[in-house]
Amino acid sequence: MGVRTGIAIAQATELAGSAGVTPITAEHDPIADSMALGRVADALQHQISPLVAIESLGKRLWAGQVLLEPDTLFCDLSGVTHLFEDEAGILDATGRCLAELGWVGKLAIADHAAAAWALAHYDVNDPVISTRGVDDLLHLSVNALRIESEIKHTLDRLGIETIGALLRLPRGGLAQRLGDGIVKRIAEILGEVEIPLEVHHAEQQHLSSHELEYPTDDLEIVMDRVGRLAESIVASLAACQRGALRVACRLELVDRAPLSTVIGMFAPTQDQQHLHCLINSSLESLRVASPITKITLSVLQSGPLRTQQNALFADEAFGLGDNAVSDRSLARLVDTLSGRLGRDAVLGVRLSENPLPEKAFRTYSLTDHRTRKALRRLPSKQPARRKTAGERSTFHAPRRDDARRRPMQLLRKPVRLTAVEKSPAHAANPFQALPPFRFEGALHRVAFAWGPERIETGWWDGPTIRRDYYRIETETGNVWWVFRELKSGEWFLHGRFF
Which positions, given as ranges, span the membrane (predicted)? Predict the structure, then answer.
């Protein structure tokens, strides 16, 4: 129907509607994706091969990759092929295993992990069993090498689209022009270098359930049973020296569909009382329309407990102004707020590499441990932009020690300003470059201005955006952060100073 990853939801809905299909829209949850892939890996370990690995990713997207999260499983078939008669039998058994879980996979078997990945992602046939080695790979796109987008762009300019065309070039020249990375990828797909695979290990299941003797909707009784189940869960976690990070509570009802709630933690915990309070707070927000017959607590995600102590006396009462506030206090605060307000209401902030101010940071839930771990692996510093000849005297970027380098309030979306006069083509100073403009029904004239500071995006981010930013003070005393879009010449308000 034309729906593809990355397009606007409104456009996807329109395309689906024109085909007579009513789409279902749900918020993307990378944690749920990771957990689902883990369940598939567990099933393949039981039914296909004991050596199953989830693909490892780099810090940057590969060419042709949309999301920076794994979507591929590797199975080592050494010593198991005879159990299924032949390789075709393995593919049939894998297809049945996925179907039991409600999934359909693109399957490929090859001599090396890199070749199998390439065939599974870019060969038109499904499934694929490689019998000719390298000859089966020559027609595939160079994206099958898992190369970076910049390298793919250079190969496109050279007219190299397939692996076969790339292999005809000398590796020495490729390394000199494109770096050692592409040479390593070629060696991997030819089987000269093996991809290191980290075997997936299923996490021990921590689960406890209680079936009520009589169905009840008495919240006090339910809370008491939840406390007993929490005690059992904590004992199971203590046996393997781990703490709970994500706990699910499932309520089975009389003549109604079961209700479930999931609680995420900021840090691994074995505190029974803390778990009990979080689960109780979550259950209070549920609308139980029928008596409860069974309660089940399960640990969806756990982690090793921290062994370091931040202070000499761990039980000492700390004040908010004390720098030695313990991690336990912070974790409890985040857990409590997330439990009452929702996990998407208590967020952390991390800088990104995007030069646009509105995209210069990303937020994430503090109780989504896997997301936090993945973000820590990403670079947070933006690379310095090289200055062109003559730029030093034209653009005036504020110093890092300038208190007004960036506004206190950044608008979520820049607001267009209506200029009442045209900007001079060649202004003698920054003041003349900013014309009087109207905003919120009032006329504003610029009294003082600092800038311009040019901010622009790279070619790899799509259509180029080029802006000249100014810090201005109007005659009424307002101090704003505005920019002029160089392509259209229009002015926008992007932030306010206080």
Answer: none
Range of lowest pLDDT (256-265, 364-373, 422-431, 475-484): 422-431
Q: How many other CB atoms are there within 10 angstroms of residue 289's CB atom?
A: 12
User: Residue 336 and residue 366: Cα distance in Å, rounded?
Assistant: 12
CA 80 – CA 167 distance, rounded (Å): 33
d(CA 250, CA 8): 35
Q: Above pLDDT 90, what percent of the chain?
A: 29
Q: Number of helices and strands (H, E) in the chain?
A: 13, 17
CA–CA dist 408, 314 (Å, integer): 37
DSSP 11: H
Rounded Cα–Cα distance for residues 26 and 36 (Å): 16
DSSP code at position 300: E
Cβ partners under 8 Å of residue 140, min gap 6 = 118, 119, 122, 123, 162, 163
**Res. 163: pLDDT tops 90:** yes
Alpha carbon distance 377, 60 (integer Å): 10
- Across 15-24, 149-158, 347-356, least confident range: 347-356
User: Which carries the bigger pLDDT value, residue 332 or residue 211?
Assistant: 211
DSSP state letter for 387: P
Helix, strand or coil, per DSSP, at residue 164: helix
Tokens matching residue 264: 């995420």
Q: By the 8 A CB rule, do 136 and 130 touch?
A: yes
Is the whole model's pTM more than 0.85, yes or no?
no
More confident residue, 393 or 335: 335
- The answer for residues whose C-beta is within 8 angstroms of residue 180's C-beta and 6 or more apart is none
Q: Are 44 and 72 in contact (CB under 8 A)?
A: no
47: Cα within 13 Å, side-chain hemisphere: 19
Alpha-carbon distance values, 347 to 13, 357, 372, 456 (Å): 29, 19, 11, 28
**HSE on the CB side for 21, CA within 13 Å?**
12
362 φ, ψ (degrees, to nearest 5): -135, 145
Q: For residue 426, is pLDDT > 60?
A: no
Decide if 115 contacts 189 (C-beta within 8 A): yes
Which residues lie across from 301 on neighbouring strands?
Answer: 246
